[in-house]
């Protein structure tokens, strides 16, 4: 029986769950893959920390980097996290020393994936990162294998469970942003520092990885990123009244041979599939030819779902399946020029909180007219007691640069009470 010696570095939420899973399921994994996974070594930062796993004395490595040098290690599983520091050192050294690597680290792959893939290819070892994007949703293996026949024109969806939980709870329970964020932290859906989830960075890393796989390109940093911090309950109520839901979506799309990557809160029709994805779930929608539209939905994070993805990667290595990390040899991957969304057109939702006095509405509509953005729908909700009025405008499609010009111009007006809002609408 063939054997594969594994070192797991990082024994936190994910590493300790994976450790137990591998021990319990060693037999079935061996049978399915015709090769036995053996956890030879483990390492983490603090040896004395109490853990819910039984580590044998000879399994613990005091220096995690030793795993990259030991002859009896074939595969290193990096579960430390972060794009720099120990995770980066570990993965670079492992690949240079011809060890296979499995990682759940989206930040590392989004930043150094191209260089790492180059080293893996040269040294004929695997670099697998299914768990880095959307936890248990097997999107990377689907793109690399199940959907290999397809020319992908668009991939989009909900790639962050924390922000989806916040937006859907604000909608369903009519709670404020901070109140929902606190409950998300209590329930373990948000980290104590949830900034990467809320400012769109987490989705941005995942989207970069997915679009490079979809368009056979190198990772590309031309990406528009906006998080959910400015969304309030009034926007959510307005969206409902207009027949929409607000979701934080990531999009990578090819339009007339130009590729756009963007992450932002989006108004989507409330009868669409994505609108129905609530809570911590993730959903990925792929438009491909010849397959048409494919959808995969599932748990986007957490130890169980992430371990499902890690085991898929480990099994691929157990079967001795050496593949290019990004599907193609680095020589075949393209240096595509991705476009800024400035010149992509959208219809949009604007919200202006203004002093309720004559002339304001006509001043605003004039600014739209001057920027050649045509208005599809306008709703004005006056609050006579406070002498303010909320103006909601839905536009026809217009270049993003003009929508932003309007936002900036109106924001400077003396009649504006709070920062104006612009939320792009997804028509499909
Ligand atoms: N949590 C999720 O739901 C989820 C989902 C998908 C992907 N991921 C990714 O999975 C990875 C791990 O996440 P996690 O939630 O398991 O993180 P975590 O609970 O914070 O665990 C991190 C582990 O790394 C170890 N570590 C930190 N610094 C180290 C160093 N200098 N040397 C050696 N070990 C070090 C820690 O050691 P100690 O235990 O001794 O402190 C800990 O065991 C991250 O890349 C994350 O983005 C997580």
CATH superfamily grouping of the largest domain: Dihydrodipicolinate Reductase, domain 2
CATH architecture group name of the largest domain: 2-Layer Sandwich
Which overall shape is indicated by the principal axes computed on the Cα atoms?
A: elongated
Radius of gyration: 24 Å
Task: Tell me the strand percentage band.
Answer: 25-35%
According to DSSP, the number of beta strands is 17
Predict the CATH topology of the largest domain: Dihydrodipicolinate Reductase, domain 2
What is the helical fraction, as a range of percent?
A: 25-40%
Bound molecules: NADP nicotinamide-adenine-dinucleotide phosphate
**N-to-C CA distance:** 52 Å
Quaternary status: single chain
Largest sheet: 12 strands, mixed
The average pLDDT is 95
Series of H and E elements: EHHEEHEHEHEHHHHEHEEEEHEEHEEEHE
How many independent structural domains?
3
Low-confidence segments: none
Task: Report the structural category.
Answer: alpha/beta
Q: What is the highest CATH level, the class of the largest domain? A: Alpha Beta
The number of helical runs is 13
